[in-house]
Design brief:
Layout: H1 3-12, H2 14-19, E1 36-47, E2 53-57, H3 58-70, H4 84-97, E3 101-110, H5 121-133, E4 138-141, H6 147-157, E5 160-162, H7 164-175, H8 179-193, H9 220-255, E6 259-265, H10 271-279, E7 296-301, E8 307-312, H11 322-327, H12 329-337, E9 340-346, H13 352-365, E10 373-378, H14 385-389, E11 397-399, H15 408-418, E12 424-432, H16 436-445, E13 447-454, E14 457-465, H17 466-471
Parallel strand pairs: 1-3, 1-4, 4-5, 6-8, 6-9, 9-10, 10-11
Antiparallel strand pairs: 1-2, 7-8, 12-14, 13-14
Helix pairs in contact: 3-13, 4-7, 7-8, 8-9
């Protein structure tokens, strides 16, 4: 092999590309842009106590296990589950978000997973034929694969195999714009890649390729593993610096009576569109999954004239990889520290209940499930007129359309009612007309219901935050 070929081989190696840091672990071609993808879904048939068979997706089983793990000493709650077909449809959307062209799909139903290949050798032969017939470039599994399963499947199919976690990581890598987001994605990619180094090519298991190159030194695999460990430590240190800076910024914000409200929800529920409608900001709002990765915080004035900070966060998804939850903990701390959580759901989706259940699981993992919360049903403009007319807000739910601005005023009123920081007081005031600065401040920061002028004094009835009332207490009647 010539020198240029050696250089090209090293450049094409995904591990070395990952070690250079700050970039996606996959090249433009490997990320799936224009690539032809064949999807593989898996559904388990499990027996209930009465011996009747029922089906459950691999992802639903994982969600059920997660619910059991957070419910100690009690029976796990009933969780709405995605059907196998719905789960495969979501994988199709994920693949499209990664730039792939889906050319075929197959769904297998099994009693239990095959430990070696997940779906069994016979089914793999069938998939190999279907993938060849559709000229597929890669196979996407709607399930997490162990390193050995991935190697075994690739050996049989002779095509690149990507599991659900790797696909989500790649989409995150495409959308991370800030240095913080790129660091968080890189950490998740490196931790995902580490157990998958073995068996990724002969060049990783020996020192050299010819006479005179063999020796007692460490193998290429050990070298790459050591380099990745070193890079992981470095990235974690940088992320820890981000967390420290965020904590300092949060302390400065908390020193003033300004509450933080966090938007959370399933990916593509319309959080960024609603965020823009509430703040008049111009955050990227896209129909692609995970269009928002980097947190954005903007100030919002409520009807009471109180100021709050609104935080737009990364969307959740079914079986969100644990490595991503851990890597994005610096970002998701905004949810943990928020005074109020706005859980945004897509009212037009037939899978709203299932998606909401997955959001609950992530909130439990963040230990934020008991925080004050308001459920915001978004995208009501996509419903039929009769469905919209039947909608009714209640104490826990508000219906809005972020795209059309419908219901946003009601949402702000409800936030105003629910926030406990710097509570609103209704007071009567007698302010001398010569106190122009005080009158201007009240006009800017209070909601004035009545005002009368007599004998050089302005009598008014107003609602204002406690901090404002304290500043004018000498004129309170």
């Amino acid at each position: 092999m010539g020198r240029s070929e050696v250089q090209k081989s090293r450049t094409d190696d995904p591990v070395r590309r990952a070690l250079r840091g700050g970039k996606a672990a996959l090249t433009h071609e490997e990320r799936g842009t224009g690539e032809r993808a064949f999807l593989v879904g898996l559904e388990y048939r499990v027996r209930s106590r009465n011996a009747a068979k029922k089906s459950i997706t691999a992802g639903a089983q994982a969600a059920r296990d997660a619910a059991t793990s957070v419910t100690t000493g009690a029976k796990a709650p009933s969780i709405p589950e995605f059907s196998a077909e719905e789960s495969l449809d979501e994988l199709h959307t994920l693949a499209s978000s990664a730039g792939a062209v889906v050319v075929g799909q197959v769904l297998q139903r099994r009693d239990r997973p095959d430990p070696a290949t997940l779906i069994g050798a016979g089914k793999l032969e069938e998939i190999a034929g279907a993938a060849a017939a559709s000229d597929a470039d890669l196979i996407l599994f709607d399930h997490d694969l162990s390193p050995s399963q991935q190697r075994n499947i690739e050996r049989i199919l002779r095509k690149r195999v990507i599991d659900r976690t790797q696909l989500i990581l790649d989409i995150f890598a495409r959308h991370a714009k800030t240095r913080e987001g790129q660091l968080q994605v890189e950490l998740a990619q490196l931790e995902y890649m580490l157990p998958r180094l073995a068996g990724r090519g002969v060049e990783m298991s020996q020192l050299g390729g010819g006479i005179g190159t063999r020796g007692p030194g460490e193998t290429q695999l050990e070298t790459d593993r050591r380099k990745i460990y070193r890079r992981i430590r470095h990235v974690k240190e940088q992320i820890e610096n981000v967390r420290r800076i965020r904590a300092q910024q949060r302390q400065r914000r908390e020193s003033a009576p300004i509450a933080t409200v966090a938007l959370v929800g399933y990916t593509n529920a319309g959080k960024s569109t609603l965020f823009n409608a509430m703040t008049k900001a111009e955050v990227l709002a896209s129909s692609q999954m995970f269009a928002t990765l980097d947190p954005t915080i903007r100030g919002v004035e409520l009807p009471s004239k109180r100021k709050v900070l609104l935080s737009d966060t990364v969307g959740f998804i079914r079986n969100l990889p644990h490595t991503l939850v851990s890597a994005f903990r610096a970002t998701l701390e905004e949810v943990q520290k928020a005074s109020l959580i706005l859980h945004v759901s897509d009212a037009s989706s037939p899978l709203t209940a299932e998606q909401d259940a997955q959001v609950e699981l992530v909130l439990k993992e963040l230990e934020s499930e008991k925080k004050p919360r308001l459920h915001v049903m978004n995208k009501i403009d996509l419903l039929e007129p009769k469905q919209r007319e039947a909608l009714r807000d209640d104490a826990q739910t508000v219906h809005v359309s972020g795209a059309r601005g419908v219901g946003v005023a009601t949402l702000l009123e409800r936030i105003d009612q629910m926030l406990e920081e710097d509570p609103i007081r209704r007071v009567k005031l007698r302010v001398p007309q010569k106190e122009g600065k005080v009158l201007a401040m009240l006009a800017a920061k209070a909601r004035i219901y009545a005002r009368e002028y007599q004998d050089g004094v302005v009598e008014m009835e107003a609602e204002a935050p406690e901090s404002v009332v304290r500043s004018v207490k000498e004129w309170v009647k």
